[in-house]
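Invent a record, attention on C-alpha coordinates:
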Amino acid sequence: MIQKETREKILQKAISLEKFGMRDLAWEKEDAKHLIMSLMFDDIGILGGDVYKVDLTRIVPTYDNWSCEQKNQESKRDYFFRSKTETFEYINQYPVDQNEQILFSIVFNEIIDS
Protein backbone atom coordinates (compact mmCIF):
# COMPACT_ATOMS: atom_id res chain seq x y z
CA MET A 1 0.00 0.00 0.00
CA ILE A 2 1.25 3.44 -0.90
CA GLN A 3 2.26 5.64 2.01
CA LYS A 4 0.29 8.83 2.65
CA GLU A 5 3.37 11.06 2.23
CA THR A 6 4.22 9.48 -1.12
CA ARG A 7 0.64 9.85 -2.33
CA GLU A 8 0.62 13.52 -1.33
CA LYS A 9 3.87 14.16 -3.24
CA ILE A 10 2.42 12.53 -6.35
CA LEU A 11 -0.86 14.47 -6.25
CA GLN A 12 0.64 17.83 -5.30
CA LYS A 13 1.31 19.17 -8.84
CA ALA A 14 -0.58 16.54 -10.82
CA ILE A 15 -2.80 17.63 -13.69
CA SER A 16 -5.96 15.58 -14.13
CA LEU A 17 -6.55 14.50 -17.71
CA GLU A 18 -10.27 13.87 -17.11
CA LYS A 19 -11.25 17.04 -18.98
CA PHE A 20 -9.61 15.42 -22.01
CA GLY A 21 -11.59 12.20 -21.52
CA MET A 22 -8.76 10.26 -19.88
CA ARG A 23 -8.68 8.88 -16.34
CA ASP A 24 -5.04 9.68 -15.76
CA LEU A 25 -2.67 12.18 -14.20
CA ALA A 26 0.21 14.03 -15.85
CA TRP A 27 2.86 16.60 -15.03
CA GLU A 28 4.64 19.37 -16.89
CA LYS A 29 8.35 18.76 -17.41
CA GLU A 30 9.78 20.63 -14.42
CA ASP A 31 7.05 19.38 -12.09
CA ALA A 32 7.65 15.79 -13.26
CA LYS A 33 11.40 16.11 -12.64
CA HIS A 34 10.81 17.59 -9.19
CA LEU A 35 8.31 14.84 -8.37
CA ILE A 36 10.72 12.07 -9.34
CA MET A 37 13.54 13.58 -7.30
CA SER A 38 11.22 13.87 -4.29
CA LEU A 39 10.26 10.18 -4.67
CA MET A 40 13.80 8.90 -5.24
CA PHE A 41 14.04 7.06 -1.91
CA ASP A 42 10.34 6.28 -1.48
CA ASP A 43 9.12 2.71 -1.80
CA ILE A 44 7.51 3.09 -5.23
CA GLY A 45 8.65 2.34 -8.77
CA ILE A 46 7.82 3.67 -12.21
CA LEU A 47 6.74 1.23 -14.90
CA GLY A 48 6.95 3.87 -17.65
CA GLY A 49 4.88 6.64 -19.13
CA ASP A 50 3.54 8.52 -22.10
CA VAL A 51 4.07 12.00 -23.51
CA TYR A 52 1.22 14.29 -24.57
CA LYS A 53 0.98 17.72 -26.13
CA VAL A 54 -1.78 20.11 -25.12
CA ASP A 55 -3.16 21.78 -28.24
CA LEU A 56 -5.62 24.51 -27.24
CA THR A 57 -8.49 22.52 -25.69
CA ARG A 58 -7.42 19.00 -26.57
CA ILE A 59 -4.62 16.64 -25.72
CA VAL A 60 -2.65 14.97 -28.50
CA PRO A 61 -0.49 11.89 -27.99
CA THR A 62 3.05 12.36 -29.25
CA TYR A 63 3.49 8.56 -29.41
CA ASP A 64 6.65 8.99 -27.36
CA ASN A 65 6.93 6.82 -24.27
CA TRP A 66 9.31 4.91 -22.05
CA SER A 67 9.19 1.78 -19.93
CA CYS A 68 11.25 0.13 -17.25
CA GLU A 69 10.97 -3.49 -16.19
CA GLN A 70 12.56 -5.20 -13.24
CA LYS A 71 15.62 -7.23 -14.27
CA ASN A 72 16.28 -10.80 -13.21
CA GLN A 73 18.02 -10.91 -9.84
CA GLU A 74 17.37 -7.19 -9.29
CA SER A 75 15.95 -6.39 -5.87
CA LYS A 76 12.72 -4.45 -5.65
CA ARG A 77 14.53 -1.55 -3.98
CA ASP A 78 17.18 -1.43 -6.74
CA TYR A 79 14.47 -1.60 -9.41
CA PHE A 80 12.49 1.22 -7.81
CA PHE A 81 15.58 3.44 -7.73
CA ARG A 82 16.64 2.57 -11.30
CA SER A 83 13.12 3.10 -12.65
CA LYS A 84 13.02 6.61 -11.21
CA THR A 85 16.53 7.40 -12.45
CA GLU A 86 15.69 6.25 -16.00
CA THR A 87 12.41 8.17 -15.93
CA PHE A 88 14.15 11.33 -14.76
CA GLU A 89 16.74 11.02 -17.53
CA TYR A 90 14.06 10.46 -20.19
CA ILE A 91 12.00 13.46 -19.10
CA ASN A 92 15.05 15.68 -18.60
CA GLN A 93 16.28 14.97 -22.15
CA TYR A 94 12.86 15.34 -23.79
CA PRO A 95 12.83 18.49 -25.95
CA VAL A 96 10.10 21.00 -25.12
CA ASP A 97 9.71 24.21 -27.13
CA GLN A 98 9.06 27.38 -25.19
CA ASN A 99 5.60 27.88 -26.74
CA GLU A 100 4.21 24.36 -26.23
CA GLN A 101 2.74 22.53 -23.27
CA ILE A 102 4.04 18.98 -22.96
CA LEU A 103 2.69 16.65 -20.28
CA PHE A 104 4.23 13.45 -18.97
CA SER A 105 1.89 10.73 -17.75
CA ILE A 106 3.77 8.50 -15.31
CA VAL A 107 2.71 4.93 -14.58
CA PHE A 108 3.63 3.93 -11.04
CA ASN A 109 3.80 0.35 -9.85
CA GLU A 110 0.82 1.12 -7.59
CA ILE A 111 -2.44 2.80 -8.54
CA ILE A 112 -2.72 6.39 -7.37
CA ASP A 113 -6.34 7.50 -6.86
CA SER A 114 -6.92 11.24 -6.90
